[in-house]
Amino acid sequence: MKKFSGTGSGALLLVALLAAVPCAVQSRGVGSGRAFDTFRLPNSTVPTHYTLRLDTDIDRGIFDYTGNVQIRINVVETTDQIVLHSKRNVISNLQLRNGAGLKVPVKNFEFDEEKEFLVIYLGAALQANSGSYTLEIDFTNSIDRNDQAGFYRSSYEDDQGETRYLGLTQFESVDARTSFPCYDEPGIKTTYDIIISCGVAYHARSNAPLLGVQLIEGGKKLSTFATTPRMQTYLVAWLVSDFVYERVVLSQPQLAVATWSKPSSAHLLTYSVDASTRFMRAMEEYFGERYIMSKIDNVAIKSSDYSAGAMENWGLVTYRESAIFFEEQQGEQGKVGVVTIVGHEFTHQFFGNLLAPKWWSYLWLNEGFARLYQHYVGSISHPELNLRERFITGPMQTAYRADGRLTIRPMTYYTETRQGISSLFDSIAYDKAACVLRMMSYALGERTFQKGLRYYIQQNKDRGVVEESNLFDSIEQAAKEDAVLPITFSVHEIFGSWSNQPGVPVVTVRRDGNEYLFTQQRFSDEPPEVPFENSWWIPISFSTPSNTVNEKLPAFWMPPNVSEVSYTIDTAEGETVAFNPLSTGYYRVDYEESMLRELIDRMTTDHTAFEAASRARLVDDTLNIAHSRGGDYDAAVRLLSYLRNEMDYVPWMTAFKNVQHMQALLRTNEKASSLLQSFVEQLATPLLERYGVTQRSGESASAQELRSVAIELACSGSKSCAGVARAMAQTVGGSTKTDYTANDGALMCSGLRQISGEQRQVFMEKISQALSGESLNNPFTKQSLEQALSCMGKDMTNIRSYAKYLIGLSETERTKALHRLIVQSKVSPAEIVKSIDSELSLRRSISIHQSSLTKILSDVAQYVAEPSEMKLLNSVVSSYAPSIATEIEQQMNDNSKWIARNAEPLTLALSHYVEA
């Protein structure tokens, strides 16, 4: 073992070594003749075990660290070079030994900066299958970096106002290489021994359980961890901190579950530990597989220092504080947030960790399962939270919105570059994949699908690396055993039609007596210049008032590449037929005019005749199909009018997201925007009267969210609500509270639009003092006040720039903040884009992960339609995120065309329904 120095002279060593080490490959593949024409490793050598030693002095505020990595490798094909990944690591020594411990001559090593390769040239060729070798590398690096990736630093202020530093890791997708030299590809799995030294007042945690701690010289200690399971580099993790924890130890089998945080937040950890234990045991039972390690830690990181949101590191899961903390004042809505984020990361312990994707092309095999089962296993572990219904209003809505774009990619999609891989972490990998998996579960029957997933785990866990065909094989085995598909059908063909094609289908239905005729095509928000050729295997489900046999299980599978399919449904006089009634299928339904009219009439007369999910599906499909065509909006607006009588969560949340989309694109058209506001105010007023403005003890998360929606849409038209909102804004101007509820944010926003300029100035000063003061220890109070900034419009820039504000928010919070800034507070997208450009030109002043940057720019693009704004955003994207330039430009062009196509007919239709 190398002796670690704790001198902190790494900065000088860093400069000296940077001067000594070549920075770019001058002659690639010398000897073997291999040219690096791909970003993939040549894999002539593969790792079989890592021993990684790190020496840190974070407790002393020293951010350089030294490391030693010993990688045991096998030679797969004869080669005279070893190629692995390394970026940011300054190498001071490198040697190779054979199985007998004898040195193998190394000529030199160089870096390929573009591909982030470390290329080691050997004095003699290594023969294939010639035994095991050990590559040993000494290196230095630093956690003082501003991209919130790799091994980096965070901090907090203790009770005495002193800054305390910590070091944490965020390696997904390709940042393990930025912290230690390694073979940094997802399909390469091996074991790790990790040893970390730190100050005696600090401690280290890693993936595997702690084996022992040894006191060493310099007032330090050395922590040694057990050997990990075979895993990929992006899951390797460690934490060096003085955090405290709350822990529960389960038995049969033994499992220690803990959540760690800064000491002042120790009282906010209990619910996350309880949620973790309940979800873990429910997940193990559902999938018939035990979690492989004897411990799992959750770690809460300061939200502004953690762009990733959460990360499923095997045994050491990291989260933003705002995602994992819980306090009773949040109510059930806060519990939903904790259970779903814990559920997502814990599902990854099987799907992603135990079963790793062969390449990033199959990222959806990780994220789709995690997104689905955070809701579906969560509904088993926490039935009181009604998480299954939230799938329809959450992931499904997000997937439909993303998958309607012309330039969208398929679920399985190959790319190699750092930027390309980062762009795969999108709504297709998460939300669409979850929708398709959910659809297959309903189409085959949940028990059969569950059996298939158990086969998938058991048949692949020893190898540990999978691609989509492995999943299809296992599901097909279960489907055949249970005889749930016709014998000639292939799961590979059915599932492959969804994973390998972009887009979502729209099924058009027309009726001739009791015969129903179906056609399919790809749905698009924007009509394509050339007709689509996409076609899918679609499970068609339906229900009538007297027949619900096929409301989940398909009545038939609509095959691809067939012009029209006929199916007979016997109905009694006056009965209506609803297709895809519970939103189990991932497709839209376009009814012929007479059928749609009957459905709307029935909804208007008695909406409870349809399930809530069916009402939501009809609203979403009808409105989006109207948007894609323009023209007559009478049916869509008439359908929306039924919402005056709607009090259920699923239809209202679905409608609300559609309303926000229309508000965003109609905001510059004064007449259309005003009519839309009056219309939705009329629709939401009964909802506001039902739920009021005051949060009640013990109420459901759905009630909390519906109240917020009602306040957002109708408060300005209600004297009582407007009075409460105004009083709240004035109260904050006097002093800040410590017990803001989930609905206070909506009320504060409404109140800020009513109070005088002088009162807004007082409000701004109080918010500024509260957010900058050391006394604001309650993270939920801080979160509520942070959210209020978006309601201050241009005034907020006196406290924080738009860019810094948006960068510090979670994805969900940012979506809400942008809508409030641009739609409600009328801040132009151009001002926000200029702020982002200014911040990015001074990169050292901010911390932002590349994937977060692309998401922020994509979110802003949803609002951009003016030529000058389009030009400005295109310029920023081309400079800082060129990998998404085509997608951003397409989105902005689609916005312009949507407005041209829809503003006038929507204005006409709304004018007929808005009460004078």
UniProtKB/TrEMBL annotation:
Site entry: Transition state stabilizer: 430
GO cellular component: cytoplasm; extracellular space; plasma membrane; side of membrane
Alphabetical GO biological process terms: peptide catabolic process; proteolysis
Enzyme Commission number(s): 3.4.11.-
Pfam families: ERAP1_C, Peptidase_M1, Peptidase_M1_N
Membrane topology listed for this record: Lipid-anchor; GPI-anchor
Protein residues bound to Zn(2+): 344, 348, 367
Listed cofactors: Zn(2+)
InterPro entries per record: Aminopeptidase_N-like_N (IPR045357), Aminopeptidase_N-like_N_sf (IPR042097), ERAP1-like_C_dom (IPR024571), M1_APN-typ (IPR034016), Peptidase_M1 (IPR001930), Peptidase_M1_aminopeptidases (IPR050344), Peptidase_M1_dom (IPR014782), Peptidase_M4/M1_CTD_sf (IPR027268)
Subcellular compartments: Cell membrane
CDD domains for the chain: M1_APN-Q_like
Domain of life: Eukaryota
Co-factor remark: Binds 1 zinc ion per subunit.
Active site as annotated: 345 (proton acceptor)
Similarity comment text for this entry: Belongs to the peptidase M1 family.
Protein name per UniProt: Aminopeptidase
Organism: Anopheles farauti
